[in-house]
Amino acid sequence: AAMVQKYQSPVRVYKHPFELIMAAYERRFPTCPLIPMFVASDTVNEYKSEDEAIHVIERRCKLDIDAPRLLKKIAGVDYVYFVQKNSLNRRERTLHIEAYNETFSNRVIINEHCSYTVHPDNEDWTCFEQSASLDIKSFFGFESTVEKIAMKQYTSNIKKGKEIIEYYLKQLEEEGITFVPRWTPPVACKSESSTCHPRRPVSPAINIPESATKEGLSSKEILNTSSSPSEPTAGTPDDKLDADYIKRYLGDLTPMQESCLIRLRQWLQETHKGKIPKDEHILRFLRARDFNIDKAREILCQSLTWRKQHQVDFILDTWNPPQVLQDYYAGGWHHHDKDGRPLYVLRLGQMDTKGLVRALGEEALLRYVLSINEEGLRRCEENTKVFGRPISSWTCLVDLEGLNMRHLWRPGVKALLRIIEVVEANYPETLGRLLILRAPRVFPVLWTLVSPFIDDNTRKKFLIYAGNDYQGPGGLLDYIDKEIIPDFLGGECMCEVPEGGLVPKSLYRTAEELENEDIKLWTETIYQSASVFKGAPHEVLIQIVDASSVITWDFDVCKGDIVFNIFHSKRAPQPPKKDSLGAHSITSPGGNNVQLIDKVWQLGRDYSMVESPLICKEGESVQGSHVTRWPGFYILQWKFHSMPACATTNLPRVDDVLASLQVSSHKCKVMYYTEVIGSEDFRGSMTSLESSHSGFSQLSAATTSSSQSHSSSMISR
């Protein structure tokens, strides 16, 4: 069972013109002292165009791979041969490099593609990118060993690539070569030739302020921080990540970690049009799953759906915490710790958890905790800018002074556990450190109750101090500056956090009252969910009176693969019969299921298809619209998509095969929202959809999809 390993690099920007980089690159051949394993290379094939604009050279490279002697013995080789084909286009100023292995090519398939191109915003800079795939079919039973060796060698070479170019650039400079002229056509100028004035000054696409480039900001960041939204954001091509940006905003990642981030982000761009979380947030999910891209993708998709369902993106702007919380919830943000992480102070011992749960219910408390986490994300971003280095988590200081048996009240503990669960699932890797102060004797009991629910990575970040130990060596001062230690801990800093205290019983509410409120809070969502079964699609009826209206839709496939259709019918379908067997409406807690199209209706006679069917895979988000041509009844249909026998998905996973064997896989879930807009209002409809209704993620940089064809469903592979 072979596993294909893939690698995709960020964009590396060299602040030198293409021609100079080429001069440096050429010096790597035939051998290079900086790559000891690169023993020799011979030219096998060479082609030059007459005008010398095109130069293709194919080399056979001999590598001495650093592998255990035993393995070399078993394999029966000392050296590994690669074929490398370089295609240089001096007119376009591009170099494309393709490489593959010749040795063991029937057992191991290695493909690599690299390119050097001109930076889109500055023609005196050069971009470098590389991608590769490794597929080990068989290797005398040593497949995993070979995979490890190959990955290790490969990643160490990625790191070297940049050093090598810089080494030869320096060498050129020492020889007095700092400029290599661009290619010019050899013939006399013809008036129609576009390359007639190769020396004409070209103004860069965007004027990058001098000061910024000096500080080493990449042009991408300058563009992203541009104040006016109407400016076109050019930046790195296709919204790719560049290496300098990663280092500055996301931290030191290994090449494979960078690759995982780039590939997951690419997948999101293809499937979640317009709702891509920020890079640092994608990275948190990858970290939470040790950079296993499939697992990270799964939890991230669940979290995106959850955010959308509960309108989490709008919490900070639209939700005002009830007064009881503002008065009695003893927690708040307080400056930052020594590492620049935002600091959250919680005086849990002073807080009447029982009273809060009784007066507010679990939902309002959960919602409040979510708003605190959203604020935390915002503060991390802020601090990353202020401190000039990536800060992606916060520190939490919990003061247990005053903790008593009241805090062990079961519903309170249950509420706490549920809140921890929701936070762990949707804000992974955000807790940088947890300082627990003044822990009383009852604490070990509480701790044994709660700790099993907290994952190991997080538990390692906990520091617990009993009594006044926090004032001693190894205490609070190691983590927080003296000037900001709060007054209630004996510091000199006024801390604005409310003092808590008992919630008056007059504010308690009955379970019924809370129940009604809870429901209101939780279903404050414009999305509806539906279940789709094999043989039982979900259908929604839309009646159109004005012939040229626009039906818009926006849905997420939460589970399974479905086919989306839109039909038109002149006559109204019968309202769904609730028959005793419940064949038509299979009600389940997971959403409704309604069929409208009568079994006796014939496609083409009673109703017609107005859009071609769209297959949507699990985890995808689709937005689209249809301009109606006739009045009458339109039916949107989500239908179970059965996998053909040998479906080739881009990511064949064992899970898919297993899932198709389970009965539960005959159920799909969809979360949808539809709206009809008059055609004259449609011009800005995507923008209106974004602003007023759709739960498009605010986590995303605003990637809108406004330019739509007349009838289209936005989904891309």
From TrEMBL:
Residues 221-233 have a biased composition (Polar residues). Its main location: cytoplasm. Residues 321-497 form the CRAL-TRIO domain. Residues 5-177 form the PRELI/MSF1 domain. It is found in: Cytoplasm; Golgi apparatus. InterPro entries: CRAL-TRIO_dom (IPR001251), CRAL-TRIO_dom_sf (IPR036865), CRAL/TRIO_N_dom (IPR011074), CRAL/TRIO_N_dom_sf (IPR036273), GOLD_dom (IPR009038), GOLD_dom_sf (IPR036598), PRELI/MSF1_dom (IPR006797), SEC14/CRAL-TRIO_domain (IPR051064). GO terms for molecular function: RIG-I binding. Keywords: Cytoplasm, Golgi apparatus, Immunity, Innate immunity, Phosphoprotein, Signal transduction inhibitor. Gene3D superfamilies: CRAL-TRIO lipid binding domain, GOLD domain. Pfam families: CRAL_TRIO, CRAL_TRIO_N, PRELI. Residues 194-239 are annotated as: Disordered. Residues 523-676 form the GOLD domain. GO terms for cellular component: cytosol; Golgi apparatus. GO terms for biological process: innate immune response; negative regulation of RIG-I signaling pathway. May play a role in innate immunity by inhibiting the antiviral RIG-I signaling pathway. In this pathway, functions as a negative regulator of RIGI, the cytoplasmic sensor of viral nucleic acids. Prevents the interaction of RIGI with MAVS/IPS1, an important step in signal propagation. May also regulate the SLC18A3 and SLC5A7 cholinergic transporters. Interacts with RIGI (via tandem CARD domain); the interaction is direct. Interacts (via GOLD domain) with SLC18A3; the interaction is direct. Interacts with SLC5A7 (via GOLD domain); the interaction is direct. This is SEC14-like protein 1.
